[in-house]
Amino acid sequence: MFLLGLLRGHCSRWLGVLLLAGLGVQLPTAAAPAPDSTLLVVGDSLSAEYGLQRGKGWVALLEAQLAEQRAAPKVVNASISGDTTSGGRSRLPAALAQHKPSLVVIELGANDALRGLPLSMTEANLREMTRAARATGARVLLLGMQLPPNYGKTYGEEFAALYARVAKDEGAALVPFFLKGVADGPDPLKLFQADRIHPNESAQPLMLGNVWPVLRPLLAK
């Protein structure tokens, strides 16, 4: 993924580390969601447990956290390594029809940047996915990404801004930077696998910690 460029770039130019959840720290308890609800995650390798032991990724950690709640939602992880927003857009309608989720988490866009796809295409795909999910009555949470400095300031700012724009226009919740505290730390190599591309097991609680404060209120609705 494009994170290889981040690890070779100048990490000091990123925003300071904000760890919303430390390793081993118990996350706050959410209000019990409605019975028989489903939470659908549509993402790429960051959510598909690439290179990790099954059950160690952030989605699995979320499922375990929610299992402690009464009437916990069913978690469906429909993430595919290497997927783009175009791929997610094409398969989302079938996933919505099959699982009938009450909440959809969309974690896509990094591979669009890696392939140099037009930002307008990425934005259009995310916008359409959000609309399709909301049309079924589901709430939507977008997990935003940011690019390393070597992509250029203008391109990076425009890439980050498209997530905020889609969330605002389409009424979705937003995590501005899914990998905050992971990719922008003082020594990010400690939180990545040997390929220097994919976050390792130690990074997964931090990723969940970035998602949880925004996700938690949505579960109570």
Automatic annotation (TrEMBL):
The keyword Protein biosynthesis does not apply. Keywords: Signal. It comes from the Bacteria. InterPro entries: Ester_Hydrolysis_Enzymes, SGNH_hydro, SGNH_hydro_sf. GO terms for molecular function: phosphatidylcholine lysophospholipase activity. Residues 41-202 form the SGNH hydrolase-type esterase domain. Residues 1-31 form the signal peptide. Coiled coil: none annotated. Transmembrane segments: none annotated. This is Acyl-CoA thioesterase-1. It comes from Rivibacter subsaxonicus. The lineage of its organism: Bacteria, Pseudomonadati, Pseudomonadota, Betaproteobacteria, Burkholderiales.
